[in-house]
User: What shape does this take?
Amino acid sequence: MGEAPRRKVPGLTLLDEKRGVTYAIVFGIWAQVFLYCVLHDQYLIRIAPEHFTEWHPPLWGIENLTLLALGWGFRASVGPGLGLGLAALFLGRAGSRPKVEPVTMLKVLPLGILATEFAGLLAGAWVWRTGLPLYPAAFYPDFSKPLLITQTIQLTCYVTGAVAGMVYLVWIVRRR
Assistant: This one.
């Protein structure tokens, strides 16, 4: 079975792409973000389980810490992963300019993920060493050292991940 023919509206074609390419980019990017979020949450939950058990709402009745981190990793990856994937798809493939190959997009993304995690770990290490919060007190629900570490890592990763995502999208546009 082949794909159904596409109706073309003159002057209105934004993205004329095969489904396989679209899925490879969008879901390939989401899969990398998902894997990152799951691995990231697996070590955070070991540092401060209360980060997920007390300071997050219950998630689907999960009590096992490994599964809870998996669930939160999944939940945390959906918006950013699919959003970044869709943005990369349109910025890298839409229009008449030369297209960025899906494999190129997927190979470059881990650099931003690694930069994000490195920044988070560096911030967490600073808190571990000093015992002081890195961000204003209002960002911390508790001042126990484990929670200071995990919350600092999370906040740093949110900010760094957003910046890395924007740099990634700019890279895609410039690559074209």
Q: What stands out?
A: Residues 19-175 form one domain. The chain has one domain: 19-175. The helical segments are 19-47, 50-53, 65-93, 102-130, 145-175. Residues 91 and 170 are 9 Å apart (CA to CA).
